[in-house]
Design goal:
By secondary structure, the protein is an all-alpha fold. The protein has helices spanning 4-22, 66-73, 79-83, 89-101, 111-122.
């Protein structure tokens, strides 16, 4: 044990000196308050006039079955979802039947009229869809 005593004494003296050297009293040297400057807002790297996603919604084109389409389709979908379709009459009929099965309210007497409206406006020759360009999400 006597061999270790000088080593521990040296460690104790070194620790005291380190505390005295590194832990100066606050009264000896007043610290300056650091002022953190907020960085200037970065310039947007997109056109700030662009709409926010989900705020620019299109409507269905005019037609006899537009009210039926508004009631049946727009309760769950944006019109843009329908605008981008290019389905045949058979495909629109299947789609309308599927949506009715999922709860779309389409009177049986107006189902054929709705399908004809969808085919005439959003059939295979549909080139009317133009995607809406929006600003990046969260900006």
């Amino acid at each position: 044990m006597r061999r270790r005593a000088p080593f521990f004494a040296f460690l104790a003296v070194a620790a005291l000196l380190a505390c005295a050297f590194f832990d100066q009293p606050a009264a000896a040297k007043p610290r300056k308050k650091s002022r953190r400057h907020k960085p200037a807002a970065a310039a947007a790297n997109f056109d700030t006039r662009l709409p926010v996603l989900g705020t620019h919604l299109s409507e269905f084109p005019p037609g006899a079955a537009k009210p039926v389409a508004d009631q049946a389709c727009l309760s769950c979908h944006a019109a843009d979802l329908v605008w981008q379709q290019r389905l045949t009459e058979k495909q629109w009929t299947a789609s309308v039947n599927k949506m009715i099965g999922w709860g779309a309210e389409v009177p049986e007497a107006r189902k054929a009229e709705l399908v004809a409206y969808l085919v005439s406006n959003f059939g295979p020759d549909n080139t009317k869809f133009q995607p809406v360009v929006t600003r990046p999400v969260g900006r």
